[in-house]
Q: What sequence folds into this?
């Protein structure tokens, strides 16, 4: 018989029952309560002290063999040994803990209590699901090896994964493979999407400072108008993707902010452009930076202005290793059914700092259905609790399948 908690969630998702672990279904109410508590108390970047404290306390209460705090400033790592460790295998599972600086627009009973902050991307769900997996794995230990549970701060722009890696996460816990997941609005509950190779883009940012010659708007011939220079520059920057990058590759160059001027009758002295570049291949990344710098220099010179471009490389490409991608897809099929796993999903031009972990060890990153909900980073977004048993079962089965008990 299907437990009541599982029956309720499955009816909510309108999905046909597939092999969700029964014990996981029994834990759903507890995991949902944790998730909603995290949602009520969102924290940003590395300032996730409350969340990290709860995670550490629960891991200890579950009986984890090792709980380390303060890695990557506020990251938490829990280690669980299976009934046997003869295999020497170590698999890492990662969840992110931080929210976003967005004012929540909902009337949920558990809506954010922190003004200007909310869990608008589902990291509350990611953290709760990995905690659920920790509880299950610590109870059952039906595997041969060690599961390393990674709770990371500052995914939303802070590079928390980079800091944890730099502080020795991989080597200290002898992680051999590492896996991550993210909920995805628009994908039905109980379904997954994954692909080998580039899964998410590299994310770079640039700022361009133009200096012309300010003056009276009625005497433009005596000025060098940085707004006109900026307009030509913005148009030219769009040719990088359309005329320089191979059409079979992917690139996005977006100017997202223009800061200049304050009066209706004054030509300003300076203008600043801010934007982002997204790519999926190293050669496209190098090309975009080189062309951006060349365009900035040539156009400013042509108009008699001066310009400086600051180009900052951010998160690298989230690259799924083929062998581990195939493994994760097969495990997801055990949870949701073969037809529930899309292995041809196109890459997403958003970015994810799990990429730093994938640069150190083979692994894979998967999207998990969040149903018909508001999109991520939207003030009306909410993680769908009906997804919980699928995510927890996926984590549990990755450990039990990847390190089978002897």
A:
């Amino acid at each position: 018989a299907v437990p009541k908690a599982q029956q309720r969630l499955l009816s909510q998702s309108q999905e046909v029952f597939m092999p969700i672990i029964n014990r996981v279904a029994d834990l759903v109410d507890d995991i949902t309560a944790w998730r909603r508590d995290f949602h009520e108390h969102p924290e940003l970047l590395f300032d996730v002290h409350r969340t990290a404290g709860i995670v550490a306390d629960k891991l200890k209460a579950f009986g984890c063999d090792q709980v380390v705090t303060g890695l990557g400033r506020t990251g938490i790592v829990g280690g669980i040994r299976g009934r046997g460790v003869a295999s020497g295998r170590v698999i890492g599972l990662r969840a992110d803990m931080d929210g976003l600086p967005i004012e929540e627009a909902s009337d949920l009973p558990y809506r954010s209590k922190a003004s200007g902050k909310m869990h608008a991307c589902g990291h509350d769900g990611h953290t709760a699901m990995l905690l659920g997996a920790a509880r299950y794995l610590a109870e059952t230990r039906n595997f041969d090896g060690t599961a390393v549970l990674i709770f990371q701060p500052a995914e939303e722009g802070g590079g928390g994964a980079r800091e944890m890696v730099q502080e020795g996460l991989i080597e200290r816990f002898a992680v051999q493979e590492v896996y991550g997941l993210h909920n995805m609005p628009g994908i039905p509950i109980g379904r997954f999407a994954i692909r080998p190779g580039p899964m998410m883009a590299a994310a770079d940012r640039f700022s361009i400072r133009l200096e012309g010659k300010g003056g009276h708007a009625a005497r433009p011939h005596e000025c060098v108008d940085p707004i006109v220079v900026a307009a030509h520059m913005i148009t030219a920057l769009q040719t990088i993707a359309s005329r320089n990058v191979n059409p079979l590759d992917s690139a996005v160059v977006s100017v997202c902010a223009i800061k200049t001027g304050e009066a209706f009758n004054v030509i300003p002295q300076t203008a600043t452009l801010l934007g982002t570049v997204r790519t999926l291949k190293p050669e496209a990344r190098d090309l975009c930076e080189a062309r951006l710098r060349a365009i900035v220099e040539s156009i400013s010179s042509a108009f008699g202005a001066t310009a400086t471009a600051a180009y900052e490389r951010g998160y690298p490409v989230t690259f799924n290793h083929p062998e581990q991608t195939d493994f994760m897809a097969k495990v997801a099929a055990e949870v949701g059914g073969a037809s529930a796993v899309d292995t041809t999903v196109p890459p997403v031009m958003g970015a994810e700092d799990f990429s730093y972990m994938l640069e150190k060890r083979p692994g894979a990153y998967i999207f998990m259905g969040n149903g018909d909900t508001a999109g991520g980073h939207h003030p009306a977004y909410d993680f769908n609790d009906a997804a919980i048993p699928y995510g927890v079962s996926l984590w549990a089965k990755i450990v039990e399948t990847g390190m089978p008990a002897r």
Summary: The two ends are 29 Å apart (CA to CA). DSSP finds eleven helices and 16 strands in the chain. Confidence is low (pLDDT under 50) at residues 1-18.
